[in-house]
Structures are given as structure tokens and as C-alpha cells.
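---------- Forwarded message ----------

FYI, see the 3-hydroxyacyl-ACP dehydratase FabZ family protein record below. Original note from H. follows.
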Amino acid sequence: MNQEEIKQILPHRDNMLLVERAELTGENEAKGYYTIKGDEFFLKGHFPGNPVVPGVILCEMMGQASCVLLADKVKGGTPYFTKLDGVKFKKPVLPGDTLETVATVTRVRAPFYFISTKGYVNGKLHVQAEMSFAVK
């Protein structure tokens, strides 16, 4: 799925659409990808001379990729973050890196969806979190 298809699922636009491509890899699993170019707004002050993707942006990237799993539930609604737990930042994500997010639905209690996410760069785990969303 390309960005135009992702826009049918997510309300994010312009510099806040942080998934370039995504794919469903199973009934309850999806992957999303974003390559850090180096000129993103969130790198301008984080940190001058040593740009590192802020943790909150990594969580947003994983959250947006997770919503691909909710594509058939989102029609006519919007997915909203409701909870973020167990976030672990293991390694920095830098310009030139491609963050590969793997998202797995672990539980559903409509309208809430609970998703386990992991973010990899070159096959190495850099960030992980448990997230929940409400579709309204």
C-alpha cells in the first residue's frame, strides 16, 4: 500500500503522515516503513549536529503503521490513540535509516484495539511499545 492508499485510512497529511508504505502480512499483523531523510521538521532542533529521531515521533510512526491493521474498521471513522505502555527505546533512529514497524493486534474490545509494536532498522530492534486505539 502506498501513501495515497494509506491516506484512505489515516487522517494525517503533509509532514505528519509518517508512513510511506505499508502491507498486511497476516490477519492480525502489518508492517509499515518510513525512511528518515534528514530534513524533517522534528530533526531541526533534535539535536543540532547530531540529529536523532525523537521518541515521541517514533511512537507516532509506529502508531500510524499500526492503524493499517484497522483499515476495514476505520471506514467512516478515525482511529485515536488511547494508551501507550511499555515503551522502550533501545537504539537511536538516525537520518538515512528506514524504520520498519511490525504491528500485531493482541486483543479487541470494540471500539478498542490493542496492538503490540516493534520498530526495526536493518533487522535490529530499536523501539517497542504496547498501544491501544479507539475507532470513532
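H. also flagged this: The domain at 3-135 is CATH 3.10.129.10 (Thiol Ester Dehydrase; Chain A).
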